[in-house]
Each structure stands twice: as C-alpha cells, then as structure tokens.
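Case study 2.
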Amino acid sequence: MPAFLLLAFAILSEVGATLALRVSDGFSRPMPSAIVVVGYGISFWLLALALKDIPVSLTYAIWSGVGTALIAIAGVVAFGETMNLMKLASLGIIVLGVAGLSAAGGAH
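Prediction:
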C-alpha cells in the first residue's frame, strides 16, 4: 500500500480515536474507551509503516497538522464548538506549514 495512503488512514484512525475520547466521559464508557485505545493503536501502527517511505519531518507534520485541522472541524460540526476568524486563520497556518515542509523537499 502506498505510504501516503497509509498516512491518510493513520490520520483518520487518530481522528476517530480523538472523537471517541471526547465521548468516553473520562474512560467511564466502555465502547468509546475501547475505540480510543484501538484507534490510537492502529494510528501509530500505520504511522510507523508510513515512516518507512516518508521522512519523519514530513510524516509527522502531515499526521499532526491534518489531524488537528480535522479535529477542529469535527468539534464544530459534531459538538457545536465555535469557529471564529482566529481559529480559521490558525487552521490555515497549519495547512500552509505542512505545504511548506512538503515544498521544501520533505518528500522523496
């Protein structure tokens, strides 16, 4: 499987685990708690596989940056969190930072 596809699945798994963490109610709800543990485990496993072919600086920037942006959007959509201009601009900066690392020759 291509490394960037593994990374995409790692991000989705991490996002799912983080959303489950929000609804686990401090790990007091068994099903969301299990999703957290399994989701983060899968995410790290896929991240490790992606690191075989993608430099660590780019891999981690994409994994954390895209994951952060998706969680911020999911918080607004799923949990009614607020989105203001500062949050939107900050998400844009994250995207620009990841794009900048990629353009600087992080991928091979």
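Residues 3-106 form one domain.
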